[in-house]
Input
Amino acid sequence: MPFRRLQSKLLKDRAMRRSPLIRRHLPETRPYHPYVLKRMLNQHSTVFVKPDKGSQGRGIVRLKRSKHRGIHISWGLNKRKVKRKFMIRALHQRLRPYQSYIVQQGLQLTKYHNRLIDIRVFLQRPGSKWLISGKVVRVGAAGRFVTNYSQGGRPVHLHKVLDSIYHHDPQRVEATIQKVDQIAYHAAAALSSKFRGIRVLGIDIGLDRSGRVWIIEANTRPGTQLFKKLKDQSMYQTIMTNYKNIARRRR
Output
C-alpha cells in the first residue's frame, strides 16, 4: 500500500500527547498491568482494556465500578458482576495470553437516541497538506459500548446528530464542528511529524456530556464502509479520489 500503517495504540497516543495543543483532549492511556488497572479504577468510574494492536472493536473489555464495591465487566453483548478482589481473575479470562493491552480512561460520552456515538474524521494527505475528506457519526448498536461498523455501528450525518444533541442551536453545532476539525488537524500533524509516511488517518472523536471534545483513537488504515453506506456519496468519492492521488505520487 502507498502509505504507512502503525498499529500500536500506545505509540500513537504517546506521539499525540507530545503536542500541548491536544494533550488535554486525550483520555488517560497506559500499558496494561493489574496495578495500573486498579489505580485507574480508583480514579475513573469506567475504564477500557483494549488490545494494543487490535482493530474493529474486537477484544475490548469494559470495567465499571458499581455502587457496592463490585465491578461490572462487559465484553461484546455479555456482562457479569464480580467482587473487586476477583476482578483481575475475571478479566484475564477475557484476555488473550501473550497479547499486549492498554488501559484507557472511560468517558461519559453523549448519546444519540440512547445509543453511544463518536465521530469518525477521515483525513488524507495527497500532497503536502492534510485534508479532511469526510466526517460522519458512528452510532453504536443497541447494547454495545463500541461504535465500530463491524460491531453493528451505523453512519449518520454529523449535522443531523449535532442538531439533535444541541436542540437545534446552529451556533453550537458549527462551533463543535470547528473544534472537531481543529483537533483532528492537530492530531494528524503530531502523528505525521513522529511517523513519516502516514498519509491516511481516521481520528475517532467523542463528545462528553459537558461538551468537551476527546480523541478516542487514531487509525492509520481506516475503513471506508461508513461513507460508502451514506446515501450522499460525495465524501466517499472524495476519499477515493484522494487515494488515487496518493498512489499516483508514490509511483
Observations:
- Residues 29-105 form one domain.
- DSSP finds seven helices and twelve strands in the chain.
- The CA atoms of residues 143 and 218 lie 24 Å apart.
- The first helix runs from residue 9 to 17.
